[in-house]
Specification:
Rossmann fold, 13 helices, 18% strand
Length: 391
């Protein structure tokens, strides 16, 4: 079984998202070594290896270098720690989620290089100064480029001849558990209805002002927020009796929270960090057949604007939530039917299988591959079967 080395800026035990969905499925074909960013520690540098799933080993470097991430000063230490990961003579597939790890490619003698661009990392808060330069280098080196949604595809397609759009997908069976209201999570049992919920990372992409206005406009609404708070001053978070923070939860718990919600929220701030995002949760909410309201994120508005309520201003967002809560049983049934049609056309299994096919057929070092699917076709087919689905 061929080795697949993954360099990722997200920790495996953080929020279960695109990397975990894809790697747990690609592990059917590869022995996966998932390389995390270093952890600062005292004492000798060492590599902590943890088997987290069949054919998946998380490799967590521990170093005493006083810099975070795949910093230049970390590279020599990491090269030493990773030097014997692959048996001599084997040529692994090397997969990047972050261009910052590109210097670690040296010495690996890859059979193929894949760049899975799931986010526009340069648009996030405090990006490393070398990020854009390293991404340009990675795009020159990579044999395959995958993007996390149509907006990212538009931004990268002219920079690589073998780029493919793989938008967010869904594990429908997992989230359909939420159709049974009886499994509602006990930790929200004390929260009266109606419940309007969000799960995900609460960071600079989350519109704290919008949620604050929602809570003030409708004190009877109970806003349930599930997920870790990252890169936000706690003082900036909306605080009210009807705003409930549940903290980070495991992937297995998410359907339980969904089961007890009346409306699902996608309250993303409209800024540089959200310009290219393709939220995984939009399809997960649909699998649970819950009404959803989103700010006008392109990769939600364009493919799903007919089934997800889109609202630009706080007043419009609040009004859209009011409409969702007031829908008749007939309206809910029509909406649920449309959601089932959308969800039926995508799965992480199909996405991973298509990616494996592209890897298997790629010619190393040859960037001029057959033309990828046009973005117009990707968007058009989001409401119908999508041949290349994303995460």
């Amino acid at each position: 079984m061929q080795t697949l080395i993954v360099f990722c800026h997200l920790r495996w035990d953080f929020v279960f998202q695109r990397p975990q969905h894809l790697m747990t499925r690609l592990a059917e074909h590869y022995n996966i070594l998932f390389i995390e960013e270093p952890v600062q520690t005292e004492g000798p540098a060492h590599l902590k290896k943890t088997a987290v799933a069949p054919n998946i080993t998380v490799c967590q470097p521990h170093t005493n270098v006083p810099h975070y991430g795949f910093h230049d000063d970390q590279i020599p230490v990491l090269q030493g720690l990773l030097s014997d990961l692959v048996p001599e003579g084997e040529r692994p597939v090397v997969w990047f989620y972050t261009p910052m790890a590109l210097p670690l490619l040296q010495g690996l003698d890859p059979a193929l290089v894949v760049y899975d661009c799931m986010d526009e990392l340069a648009a996030f808060k405090n990006p490393p100064k070398q990020l854009l330069q390293r991404e340009s280098a990675l795009l020159n080196i990579a044999d395959l480029v995958f993007t996390g949604g149509p907006s990212l595809y538009e931004a990268k397609k002219n920079r690589h001849a073998n780029a493919h759009c793989f938008s967010s997908s869904v594990d429908a069976a997992h989230f359909r558990q939420a159709l049974d209201a009886a499994i509602s999570h006990p930790d929200q049992a004390h929260v009266a209805g109606p419940r309007l919920g969000f799960y995900g990372v609460i960071d600079e992409r989350f519109d704290t002002g919008l949620v604050r206005e929602m809570a003030a406009a409708h004190p009877e609404w109970q806003i349930v927020l599930v997920g870790p708070v990252v890169k936000i001053d706690p003082a900036e978070l909306p605080r009210a009796d009807n705003v409930h923070y549940m903290g980070q939860r495991g992937y297995q718990e998410l359907p339980q929270f969904l089961a007890g919600w009346d409306v699902c929220l996608l309250p993303f701030a409209m800024n540089e960090s959200t310009k290219f995002i393709s939220p995984t949760k939009v399809l997960e909410y649909m699998a649970a057949e819950k009404p959803s309201v989103s700010t006008p994120i392109t990769d939600v508005k364009v493919p799903y604007g007919d089934v997800v309520a889109i609202a630009e201003t706080p007043a419009e967002y609040i009004a859209a939530c009011e409409r969702m809560l007031a829908q008749s049983a007939e309206e809910n049934a029509t909406m649920a039917k449309r959601m089932r049609e959308v969800v039926a056309n995508t799965s992480w299994d199909k996405t991973a299988a298509r990616m494996h096919e592209l890897i298997s057929n790629a010619v190393p070092g040859k960037k001029a591959r057959p033309a990828p699917v046009a973005i117009e076709a990707v968007i058009e087919k989001r409401a119908e079967p999508l041949p290349v689905q994303a995460a």
